[in-house]
Amino acid sequence: MAKTKVLITVKTYPAISEKYDELVCTAGFLEDGTWIRIYPIQFRKKSFEEQYKKYDWIEIDLVKNKSDFRKESFRPVSYDTEIKILDHLDTKSNWLLRKEIVFKNKIYFDIEVLISEAKNREIMTSLAVFKPTEIIGFTIVPVEREWNKNKLEKLRQDRSSNLFAQEDEDLFEEVKKLPFKFSYLLRDSKGKKSKMMIEDWERGALYWSCLKKT
Hints:
The protein is an alpha+beta fold. It has helices at residues 92-102, 111-119, 149-160, 166-171, 201-213, and strands spanning 4-11, 15-17, 21-23, 26-29, 35-38, 56-60, 62-64, 73-76, 84-88, 107-108, 129-130, 134-142, 180-187, 193-198.
């Protein structure tokens, strides 16, 4: 089976899932600049050598995720599919190496165009490069401080019933839930304002890092 080479550019903060345990949604680009989403991945249960960073080139066996209608969605062949990290693109020369891939195809400046393509059944864009004209604000909204108790309890019961992975599961601690929702307020090329939620891993790590310093 041919492996797929992906440049990772999206890695979300871990979320609790009743079906898949704890998950990280990952997305990035193929070598031709095409978007691809990889889901599900139990990132924190991967070996250290497999835990990729943003702008790492990785190699992984993927198949189309038939449970997700979005054209960009793929999934690992199996739960324990190996992830091989090939290279990392640095930020030298004003992010030149990264721009060569990220800006290879269409860039959106008008949010209405992007939304219309997302709703068009023949196009159904669900991942895109959007460049706002202006970042006009940043919002922080309080949310539940703990994971859903019922979901968390079911997760723990499922783990305890997995006799083959019991030792590893006993050592695994759920990721802390972020008690806030963060968003950017943007203005596009036609002046239209919009709000875009930030769910990336670095945002979560920054929050916990800042909290330790207070």
